[in-house]
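Quick start: read one record
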Amino acid sequence: MKIYIGCDHAAFEEKEELKSYLVEAGHEVEDCGPFDGERVNYPDYAEKVAKKVAYQDVNEVRGVLLCGSGIGVSMVANRFAGARAALCRTVEDSKLSRGHNNANILCVGARLTPLELIKEMSSVWLSTPFEEGRHSERIALFNDLGEKVQCK
């Protein structure tokens, strides 16, 4: 699977560790930045990931965003039509975000979530299929809300 990953300065080290973990697991990872731990604005990176992921086949392309709490990046990513960003704090959150909501972007708070849990949530999130059925109808109700984006 191709994974676009981005963060802010508060989650730079976790992003780097997670990126290596995902590559070792066999995924193709494209880093959308930042590329050092200097202070940055998380909306810039959340926008980049959301635009890369929106309207792509969720079985082939997904995104991962990290910031201090995960809240900011999830708020920004969800402003874009076709982005379904889920702020997850537990393994069960990550599983449900895929199974019920067909989330295409996993958002995590690096200051609140230990690295090993971030890795576990990512693994579960990447391996959990969308259940479809009644959930598909609900996704259709909101999938096209928000700013329309051109996939890059």
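The chain has a mean pLDDT of 93.
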